[in-house]
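Q: Okay, next protein. This is 5-methyltetrahydropteroyltriglutamate--homocysteine S-methyltransferase from Peribacillus glennii. I've checked the sequence twice, so it should be correct. Can you predict the 3D structure?
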Amino acid sequence: MEKNILDSLQRKTAPFRADQVGSLLRTDRIKQARLQKASGQITAEQLRQIEDEEITRIVEKQKETGLQVVTDGEFRRGWWHFDFLEDLDGVERYEADQGIQFHQKQTKSRGIKVTGKLDFTDHPMLRDYEFLHGIAGSHTAKMTIPSPSMLHFRGEIEKSAYSDQEEFFHDLAGAYKKAIKAFYDSGCRYLQMDDTSWAYLCSEEQKEQIRAKGLDPEKLSTLYAKTINEAVAGRPDDMKITMHICRGNFRSTWISSGGYEPVAEVLFDNLNIDGFFLEYDSERAGGFEPLRFVKRPDLQIVLGLVTSKFGELENPDDIKRRIEEASRYVDLEQLCLSPQCGFASTEEGNLLTEEQQWAKLAHVVNIANDVWK
């Protein structure tokens, strides 16, 4: 009996007691190589070789921290979402007039638009995952992609491509269903969908901006949930799919504020996924009360209590107390711990050092080992 309880608390499948969101600070070598590729000093093949070497190094560093899960740090991407979305069939990249506005900072300009029928066929990130899978060894390789919601939320849709909204969301779900199967066939058993739209739907300020675009936040949440459920329906039983919800993460700044209450019931009771990575590193995320809508005993909640926005380590006792608070709404066995976001949602990265990043991840592992021992 004791062994069964211990195995249950330690978790052998994703998400893990000590987990991570995915992106890591780009190394100096990666940054330099990308600049050299942009200026024509090295070829795409030479850049990829450097990426392979640096990803291999940081995968070993992740293993050294004690994590059971490894990612490629999103080292081959400039953005957490645009790079994946613009390689879907029917989507094109363009230079936007301005970047995305965060508090006190703005990203560089980048945009995507839907110009044709959506599909998923020969996507370059399949090769990226296969490389990670090949070096993961006994660890679980985790692939991160943007949620289907993000194409609608961040992209422009040309009427020549889709004049009917229902057709657009149907095709979007179909493209993602193909993507999920393709990653599975490449060996992926742990897929994470990153989604900032739900955090916007928790913010009164952001909902006003959504309404100003002629959209209804309530209808939007229903559409997004339906599309996600259609995309993940029928996935193999041994594939775990989680969702990370974020309030913005660029150069250690943020966009939205507001607790999960407005979307909690839709997320926790209606989305057919295996777990949620929830940002909980500041009061902007509200309290744990919305977790009362977690009714499924198989749904894992990964508490993002350790911040990736600055390098100072949190007091372990404070983190443990907050985990205890969350366990009043969700059984401890259904809880896990991670940083609230990645360390570099864009290639610029947050304002901390690589050494501090590894210390943060080791901090997550150490605290989790104490809590679920």
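A: Here is a summary of the prediction. The two ends are 15 Å apart (CA to CA). The chain has one domain: 15-79+123-371.
Q: Noted. On to the next one.
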